[in-house]
Write a structure and sequence with these properties.
- By secondary structure, the chain is of the alpha+beta class.
- It has 2 domains: 29-231, Cytochrome Bc1 Complex, Chain A, domain 1; 256-442, Metalloenzyme, LuxS/M16 peptidase-like (Cytochrome Bc1 Complex, Chain A, domain 1, 2-Layer Sandwich).
- The protein contains 16 helices and 11 strands.
- It has helices spanning 2-19, 70-77, 89-94, 121-133, 139-158, 163-171, 187-192, 195-205, 221-231, 284-295, 301-309, 341-357, 362-379, 383-397, 406-412, 415-425, and strands spanning 29-32, 38-43, 49-56, 100-105, 110-117, 211-217, 256-262, 269-275, 313-321, 328-335, 432-438.
- Strands 1-2-6-3-5-4 form a 6-stranded mixed beta sheet, sandwiched between helices. A 5-stranded mixed beta sheet has the order 7-11-8-10-9, with helices on both faces.
- Helix 10 packs across helix 16 (415-425).
- The chain is globular.
Length: 443
């Protein structure tokens, strides 16, 4: 009994402590090269490693009209040959010395990153500058990577029972903004693209004045600055302007409903979407708390209600899909055997009414902060984790040092804030409802 009591006390103290934790700010250094490249560095000599991230201000929303998937395809192209590197050389420069590399394409940006022993920092800075300036966008590389992206679409979207459902959530939630296009691409549009299109895309967006270099780890600051000047500073700043998205998503004025199908859907699914604020909006921390309370694990409200008690869904969630221009907020559920999309929609909206009608409890608020703050602290335990949170601050708050206020903003959220944002954005006229079923249901 004494052991159980001690564990309860420890758990209670942990919740309270994390909701009031003070996190030392990251000592971030910033400068901008004459060619426009923004350089962000954070020295941390606790381990003999270094994380190098190169962030480009180009994502799926920047795909040329009629060429969906270009930004994603270029994520693959950047690992091909350059003027001074053969194909797959980035793997040899990282994996062969005990490190790793990867990249990802998002709606708003594309990032490339490596983690290596710190004595290889100079080599990787040279390699990143090399593929920024001297990528070989030839017919052979273009054709091979286009086929890779098309196969990725087949496997991750067409072959998965709910792959197309995730695509529909985006395409049916935005009316005019390029967010309505899937980042991964479109088979027909990728097939119609040419290597000349790809070269034009690279020239428009893969340039120093459209990028951040973010380096975290074990280095000497002066030496790092000298290497950055040596390899990136010699790149010329292009004279042409960088195309930006100009479409503005209009406010919704009435509810919209869509019935969608796919050939391999075992159980019905439903999504209820709402347009939210931009990624740097003041209400984002409150939405993060709401997301945790509604769907942060098996003790969350949606799991307990739809999955455990009512047993009408095998999974249910509330999601904050952060985007620079306008976030998407949505409920999503997949039915249990014999249950319907209509039943899940009714229950999801009932849960929405509950969180709108009454403030969340102090216990729920403390638990959500505990989850989010502990996760944020764990994310900063290594150099790559620190680089990632800095990169996200660049992408979504347009300021690398915004990372130093994220936890404080979460701590400041009140129960009244959560109730306020759920009332403000989750209105009947701001709602799109999407049903997703197997094609046989149409018969």
């Amino acid at each position: 009994m004494r052991k159980i009591l001690v564990l309860i006390i420890i758990a209670f103290v942990t919740v309270v402590a994390y909701s009031q934790v003070n996190v030392a700010p990251l000592n971030i250094k910033e400068r901008t090269l004459p060619n426009g490249l923004k350089v962000v560095s954070l020295r941390d000599n606790s381990s003999p490693t270094v994380a190098i991230h190169v962030w480009y201000d180009v994502g799926g929303k920047n795909d040329p009209q009629g060429k969906s998937g270009f930004a994603h395809m270029f994520e693959h192209m950047m690992f091909k040959s350059t003027k001074n590197m053969p194909n797959e050389k980035m793997d040899r420069l990282t994996e062969d010395v005990g490190g790793f590399n990867n990249a990802s394409t998002w709606d708003d940006f594309t990032n490339y990153y490596e983690v290596v022993p710190s004595n290889y920092l100079e080599t990787l800075l040279w390699a990143e500058a090399e593929r920024m300036a001297n990528l070989n966008v030839d017919d052979t590389n273009f054709a091979s990577e286009r086929d890779v992206v098309k196969e990725e679409y087949r496997q991750s979207v067409l072959a998965q029972p709910y792959g197309q459902f995730n695509e529909y959530i985006g395409s049916l939630s935005y009316a005019v903004h390029p967010y309505k296009r899937g980042v991964i691409g479109n088979l027909d549009q990728l097939s119609a693209a040419t290597s000349a299109d790809a070269r034009a895309f690279h020239n428009l967006y893969y340039r120093p004045d459209n990028a951040y270099l973010i380096v975290v780890g074990d280095f000497d600051q002066k030496q790092f600055d000298d290497w950055t000047d040596k390899y990136f500073g010699r790149l010329a700043k292009p004279t042409g302007s960088i195309p930006r998205v100009t479409e503005v998503e209009p406010e919704r004025t009435k509810e919209a409903r869509h019935m969608t199908t796919a050939p391999n859907v075992p159980f019905p699914a439903v999504a209820i979407t709402y347009l939210g604020p931009p990624s740097n909006g003041a209400d984002i921390p409150a939405f993060r708390i709401a997301e945790s309370i509604l769907s942060g694990g098996e003790s969350s409200r949606l799991y307990q209600s739809l999955v455990y008690k009512q047993q009408i869904a095998q999974e249910a969630s509330f999601n904050l899909d952060v985007k620079t221009d306008r976030c998407l907020l949505y409920f999503q559920a997949i039915a249990a055997e014999g249950k319907t999309a209509e039943a899940m929609e009714k229950s999801l909206l009932a849960e929405l009414k509950i969180i709108q009608g009454s403030p969340v409890t102090a216990k729920e608020l403390a638990k959500a902060k505990n989850q989010l703050i502990s996760r944020a602290i764990r994310a900063r335990e290594n150099n790559d984790g620190k680089a990632i949170v800095i990169e996200r601050a660049v992408a979504y708050q347009h300021d690398p040092k915004a990372v130093n206020s994220d936890i404080q903003k979460l701590q400041a959220v009140t129960a009244a804030d959560v109730q306020r944002v759920m009332k403000k954005y989750f209105t009947d006229t701001n709602r799109v409802v999407i049903y997703y079923t197997g094609e046989e249901s149409k018969k």
